[in-house]
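Annotated sample (chain length 127).
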Amino acid sequence: MPAVIENGKTYIITDLIDVSGTDPKVLYTCMPPYNKFTLHKVYIYNKDSEDHEVILGAYDTTGASWSQDKLILKVTAGSTVILGPDDLPRDFVMTTDPSTAIMAWAAKLDAAVTANNVKVKLELVIL
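Output written by the structure step:
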């Protein structure tokens, strides 16, 4: 996953990740610790024949457990949603103690897909 430094800020661009189910899929592991990984842009491609709610949130990779919903987006069947900085909350995911929990931005769906996959890509900025 590439990182770009621009005007003193570090931006991270994730791969396009298939999130076609109700189990969380890690989009980006928030390391190093004590850095706030905030959403800068979100791309969602719903090629399924059904509408879906895409839930973005904090996921504990150490305990393999969902920690907190951060953003829930309704995406209609066959559509693409692109959100920029003005459309997104100023929320973040942060790892504070990697010996107890390594946190990540993750995504999951409200229901499994019926025909085609739903994919998500993030641009994050480290604060």
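Annotation: The mean pLDDT is 95.
Annotation: The chain has one domain: 3-126.
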